[in-house]
Automatic annotation (TrEMBL):
Protein name, UniProt field: ABC transporter ATP-binding protein
InterPro entries: AAA+_ATPase (IPR003593), ABC_Ni/Peptide_Import (IPR050388), ABC_transporter-like_ATP-bd (IPR003439), ABC_transporter-like_CS (IPR017871), Oligopep_ABC_C (IPR013563), P-loop_NTPase (IPR027417)
Family: Belongs to the ABC transporter superfamily.
Alphabetical keyword list: ATP-binding, Cell membrane, Membrane, Nucleotide-binding, Transport
Annotated GO CC locations: plasma membrane
Organism field: Psychrobacillus glaciei
Length: 328
């Protein structure tokens, strides 16, 4: 297993006291797998990603395990983390313009990662940069080396970010809404590139997105988050065809369907509860049309619906118990 995350729990200091942002988040990513993380904003998708990289504020408290090739990132001292970030694990974000330095050339910015993580000499680094630029599908690689970010289009800049992320052949690439700022055609090209890189480099990808088109295009498995917890996990086809959690159903169905094509996550009446005011029982209670009395009082257990499909909802407790009886 490339990545194994177990019971990841994160608390951040807010206005003088600790607030739990993530609770018992568990999942795995294999080599050559893309795991999608979906949910509304404020559900903990980005915080999950930042926790994996330990890019967290000073007073953050992180518990649980993040095993990358069996090495626990949560326990690693800061010094060792810098070796892992950019080398074994890289991240790309939504807006390439704010992530790139406007004062440095493209070549120099890709080279920085190589200086940090490799022993390549200057001419070797230059060669590597040129071949990376080609690998991410950019034309005129030699000229680009000396150009500045503002001279490039949004799509080209995102390719540069991918080149930086890929510079050291990471085992795991974490992408937070990487195509949200791009127009549809460019978005499709970037997704195609990511699929290609995943296959040729045999790496794992975590794709954070609110766009179901992106999920359908690149993800093998999907994890749905709500209010800092995982509410459902399944293979992508299974999740689209047989969603179980009322929140997942809401995301998939509450949207106008154009000729059967689902584009964006739907909007469900109500809002995500704030971390300061988490309900005691099911966190989706206020917005759930299937809510029962016990949902309000008790946290729903996570139940295995079938192989590689689980959900945290009281509706399925009976179903699973019956299956167990039949099996015993
Ligand atoms: Fe709805 Fe209850 Fe399931 Fe929560 S546990 S999603 S309130 S049915
Ligand atoms: Mg986010």
């Amino acid at each position: 297993m490339l990545l194994e995350v177990k019971d990841l729990t994160l608390s951040l200091m807010r206005q003088g006291s600790y607030t739990k942002i993530l609770e018992d988040v568990s999942f795995t990513v294999q080599k050559g797998e893309t795991l999608g993380i979906v949910g509304e904003s404020g559900c903990g998708k980005s915080m999950t990603a930042l926790s994996l990289m330990k890019l967290l504020p000073d007073k953050a408290k992180l518990f649980g395990e993040v095993l990358l090739d069996s090495e626990d990132i949560v326990k690693l001292p800061r010094k060792n983390l810098e070796k892992i970030r950019g080398d074994q694990m890289s991240m790309i974000f939504q807006d390439p313009l704010t992530s790139l330095n406007p004062l440095h050339t493209v070549g120099k910015q890709i080279e920085e990662t190589l200086v940090l993580h490799t022993n390549l000499n200057k001419s070797q680094r230059r060669n590597r940069v040129i071949s990376l630029l080609k690998e991410v599908g950019l034309p005129r690689a030699e000229d680009l080396y000396n150009e500045y970010p503002h001279q490039l289009s949004g799509g080209m800049r995102q390719r540069i970010m991918i080149a930086i992320a890929m510079a050291c052949n990471p085992k795991l690439l974490i992408c937070d809404e990487p195509t949200t700022a791009l127009d549809v055609t460019v978005q499709a090209q970037i997704l195609e590139l990511m699929n290609h890189l995943k296959e040729t480099n045999d790496m794992g990808i975590i794709m954070i997105t609110h766009d179901l088109g992106v999920v359908a295009e690149v993800c093998d498995n999907v994890m749905v988050m709500y209010a800092g917890q995982v509410v459902e996990k399944a293979n992508v086809i299974e999740l689209f065809q047989n969603p179980k959690h009322p929140y997942t159903k809401g995301l998939l169905y509450s949207i106008p369907q154009l000729e059967g094509k689902i584009e964006k996550l739907g909007s469900i009446p109500g809002t995500v509860p704030s971390p300061e005011n988490m309900p005691v029982g099911c966190r989706f209670y206020d917005r759930c049309k299937y809510a029962m009395e016990k949902c309000k009082l008790e946290t729903p257990p996570t139940v295995e619906i079938k192989d590689n499909h689980s959900t945290a909802c009281w509706l399925y407790e009976e179903e699973v118990r019956e299956n167990e009886l039949i099996g015993s």
